[in-house]
Amino acid sequence: MSPILLLSLAATTSAAWVEDTFFTNNAPSWRKFAMTTDGSTIVGAGHMSAWVSTDNGASWVKRMIDGKWEGVGISADGSKMVMGGIEINMFKSDGGGNFQTGWNDAQLSSATSQKLRDLAMSSDGNIIVSAGDTSDVDAQTWTQGSFRSTDFGATWNQISTTPMTGIAMSANGNVIAAVTPTSNAGVLVSTDGGTTWATNTPSESTTLTAIAMSSDGSIMAATGYGNNGGIWTSTDTGSTWTH
Questions:
Q1: Residue 162: helix, strand or coil by DSSP?
Q2: Which Gene3D superfamilies match (predicted)?
């Protein structure tokens, strides 16, 4: 079980990490986090539970039942949220506040099942993209790659068949970046909402596991492990990377 560390930016130029003590001795195995533009609302997805804070992490409310929650996304204003995971349903909510109400299925078509690894949401909450792979499960019953919805999870279209373990999206939904477990595959980047993709490999000896980006998609950060593991950054929409 891992603690939550919150970065506090002071009015001076100093910054410090502090542990969120709410979960001391009682934390799920955290997988992914997402937050609103102002940082006041934070949602955390973990194996066995998912939580929401609306006071910058001072207190938290459990919002989803037990399950292997892997991905979560929230709109810029905190009015919409989507959450999903491994071998469990994908859910969405427009209940606002602590998301006490408004939970509904945000499922792919009945003919498609995905081992979901990550989610990303546009700033208005209408566009959602998923990342999935088929490792550790029966590949005959799961669909890998990425799916995209432009109507808050009502309908979905597949935009990639490459296995993915992490995904990020710009505020307007045009720029999408994903990392894949495929050997030396690196980072997949689309600048047209998933219609076309380009591949860039920061390092042949690094396996990337997660990715994030700025609101316009120009700045990206990816984490990984291997001989050149750690953090990689890009300031040109994923074209080149610095360790």
A1: coil
A2: YVTN repeat-like/Quinoprotein amine dehydrogenase
Q: Is the pTM of this model over 0.85?
A: yes
In angstroms, the CA 228 to CA 232 distance is 9
**Single-letter code of the amino acid located at 18:** V
Strand order in the sheet with 166-169: 166-169, 176-179, 187-190, 198-200
Judge whether 29 and 47 are in contact, CB under 8 Å: yes
Adjacent-strand bridge partners of 29: 47
CB of 135 closer than 8 Å to CB of 180: no
Could you say which DSSP state residue 101 is in?
Answer: S
What's the order of all strands across the beta sheet hosting 42-47? 29-35, 42-47, 49-53, 61-64
pLDDT tens for the chain, 243 residues: list them.
456 665 544 444 456 788 888 888 777 788 899 999 999 999 998 887 888 999 988 889 888 766 788 899 999 999 999 988 876 668 898 876 667 777 788 877 655 566 788 999 999 999 999 998 866 555 445 678 899 999 999 999 999 989 898 999 999 999 999 998 766 668 999 999 999 999 988 887 788 889 999 999 999 999 988 888 889 999 999 999 999
**Helix and strand totals (H; E) in the chain:** 0, 21
- Residue type at 242 in one-letter notation: T
Q: Is 90 helix (H, G, I), strand (E, B) or coil?
A: strand
Of 181, 182, 167, 183, whose CA–CA distance to 238 is shortest?
167
**Within its chain, how far is the Cα of 170 from the centroid?**
12
